[in-house]
Amino acid sequence: xxxxxxxxxxxxxxxxxxxxxxxxxxxxxxxVNEALKxxxxxTAYDSLLWIMNEGYKYNTTVSLHINIKDAYMxxxxxxxxxxxxxxxxxxxxSFTKGGYWGNQQSxxxxxxKEWDTGFLKKRIDELCEFLPIQKAGTIHIDAxxxxxxxxxxxxxxxxxxxxxxxxxxxx
Length: 171
Known about the structure:
Elements: E1 10-14, H1 44-54, E2 60-67, E3 70-71, H2 78-83, E4 97-101, E5 104-108, H3 111-116, H4 119-130, H5 133-136, E6 140-142, H6 156-170
Parallel strand pairs: 1-2, 2-6
Antiparallel strand pairs: 3-5, 4-5
């Protein structure tokens, strides 16, 4: 592809790089999908680092596709998010459901709660320490629509304000 594009700079976003593939185990971002492991590497993590660095030889930045909105009950962070009240709620106190992906119900993370408590900053910082995102200088955040959170009394505008703070922090 680099030859076909005559060395033009390119960006590739890896979808499904975490856990078992696309949309698995969010909100956690701390495990590389074993399907990425090359036989010559010790771990899938080593293979992901390899491809992220190898891309530069071909004028290609390799970065990640992530999702900050969804949470799944099988996530290593589910209990922490539940205990710290970081999931959006309906007026009746039930968790706000998102889509049904990968044969699992997703639930919506409250941008405002996660941002205001510092949990999201911590999650972003840990990802940037785990993988060379800052070197790539780009990341694809999927499905980052703001929502209201009636169970916490947060309006859509409050969600939008928090989303804007999140984008500024990523920058």
